[in-house]
């Protein structure tokens, strides 16, 4: 049986901004920075393999920018999810570490973008320092993603309670499958 504090962490502070009960927007939005930043790292590495790497270097720069914009959007709704978690709980502490890592990673990518901005005109591969910064940032992002998974899958933050989830496993009267 869910306690009142668990129930509080499942409900959004603002359904219009953070997503309705049991269907938060934060997990949807984080796919943008994760995909953009992982792909930018792949492009950085590939820029050391191909003959004319300028297009990869430039693409990586803009993927970093797309990731920063996506991260800021995800952070806004993530803050709303964090505010729903009762303070002083393991879930809240995990949420604070998750948020801090994400803000540090986003700041690192802002620095990385500014470091690269306009420097692809030479058509060369991505510099070693920039590549290392991207690799370290993606590794920190992976740790933060693990903590985000812990928030959702272990602590059930913004996940519908078990009685609501059980509705999806109740056979329909006609015995046919329901698609939702």
Main attributes of the structure:
180 residues, mainly alpha
How does the SSE layout of this entry go?
Elements lengths: L3 H7 L4 H4 L7 H4 L1 H16 L7 H30 L6 H27 L11 H27 L7 H5 L14
Helix pairs in contact: 4-5, 4-7, 5-6, 6-7
Provide structural commentary.
With 180 residues, this protein is mostly helical. Helix content is 67%, strand content 0%. The chain contains eight helices and no strands. The protein has helices at 4-10, 15-18, 26-29, 31-46, 54-83, 90-116, 128-154, 162-166. The longest helix is centred in the middle third of the chain and has 30 residues, at 54-83. The protein starts with a helix and ends in a 14-residue tail after the last helix. The model has no long low-confidence stretch (mean pLDDT 88).
Query: Major beta sheet, specifics?
Result: none
Mean pLDDT: 88
Q: Percentage of helical residues?
A: 55-70%
Q: What is the string of helix and strand elements?
A: HHHHHHHH
Spatial separation of the terminal alpha carbons:
25 Å
Measured on Cα atoms, how large is the radius of gyration?
A: 20 Å
Provide a short characterization of the protein structure.
With 180 residues, the chain is mainly alpha-helical.
């Amino acid at each position: 049986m869910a306690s009142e504090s668990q129930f509080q962490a499942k409900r959004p502070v603002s359904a219009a901004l953070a997503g309705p009960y049991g269907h938060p927007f934060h997990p949807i939005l984080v796919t943008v920075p994760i995909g953009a930043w992982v792909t930018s790292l792949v492009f950085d590495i590939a820029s050391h393999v191909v003959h004319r790497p300028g297009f990869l270097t430039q693409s990586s720069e803009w993927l970093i920018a797309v990731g920063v914009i996506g991260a800021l959007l995800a952070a806004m709704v993530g803050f709303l999810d964090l505010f729903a978690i009762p303070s002083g709980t393991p879930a809240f502490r995990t949420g604070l570490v998750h948020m801090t890592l994400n803000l540090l990673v986003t700041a690192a990518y802002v620095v990385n973008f500014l470091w690269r901005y306009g420097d692809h005109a030479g058509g060369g591969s991505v510099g070693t320092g920039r590549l290392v910064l991207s690799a370290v940032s993606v590794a920190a992002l992976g740790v933060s993603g693990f903590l985000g998974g812990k928030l959702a899958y272990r602590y059930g933050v913004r996940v519908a309670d078990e009685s609501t989830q059980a509705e999806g496993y109740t056979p329909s009267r006609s015995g046919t499958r329901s698609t939702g």
